[in-house]
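ARCHIVE CARD
Drawer: 12
Card no.: 0347
Subject: one protein chain, sequence and derived structure
Cross-reference: see card 0346
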Amino acid sequence: MQTAVSGRRTMRLSVVVPVHNGGEDLRRCLHGLAASARPPDEVIVVDDGSTDDSAADAAALGARVVATPAGPRGPAYARNRGAEAANGDVLVFIDADVVVHADTLGRMEAVLVDEPNVAALFGCYDDNPPARSPASLFKNLLHHYVHQHGEREAGTFWAGCGAVRRAVFLEAGGFDQGYTRPSIEDIELGVRLRQAGHRIRLCPEIQATHLKRWTLRSLWRTDIFARAIPWTRLILRRGRLSSDLNLNPRSRLSALLAWALLGCALLVLGLALVGPARLAAWPALGVLLAAAGTAALNADLYAFFLRRGGARFALLAAALHVAYLLYSSLVFAWLLVCHRLRGKVLRPREQTIK
């Protein structure tokens, strides 16, 4: 039975949640869906080889449980199985460590009803994550900020809190199951949707809470192996550098300044150690100029860190951001050189850490 939303025309929303050992996060995710002002028409939890009570918990909370054979096989495969089992007009993909807001599903439906030529949409994490470690706060706040300032007409997709018309999804062939661990399978789907002529909308007003707890090790390994490497390979296969989200011109210029900052700092250190020390004045000036340029380009982001986490966190987050610019751009440059030398790009080997 379809659900009316503020007198609008209605559609059926099938929520698909892939999970592997979701634990308490999954339970909170499902409670959030149950508390939605616009309730889902069905919730399908795809149990991807869990060894905990995820399947039983999902069934007890009213979800339809689909099990993947010989799992875990990754969220791309799991989401595809959920899409096959779904009955709705729209597939809403929610990660098992994400809690929707009361208005998340209603806002999704409103956009898709009001704009029938929009094939897919996605929102963002909110700016109040429950995990408050520096790495967790930095990662979630950076995601929120980037999605709040991205182009509304998107060239990508995000499956943490996103929706796509089921007919479009099936026509596109779903997620690429070659991504056997959490990676850029949603970005790759977005690329194919755009290439097929479909519109994707970034809706920053559609938000959800991310429960994931990050460490510096998990953050860096995920950023490099789950994002930067496969994303760069995708860009090189396409032959065109996107300007979406983290790839906008400001981010590219910031990366150049980060490398200037690092180079000048190393030069200052080298001259201080081997002399003559007086020559360190010029690279020291370069450090100041590069740092000032980076801060100026990212003043709004760093002010956001300050508002949400205080002065000490803002300084640490700025340092983490500079590190992010360095290793992300290094990966891109390294793979670009390999691509030029070999004349081809190998299919990404999925080595993501979730």
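Annotation on reverse: The chain has two domains: 13-213, 215-354. The radius of gyration is 22 Å.
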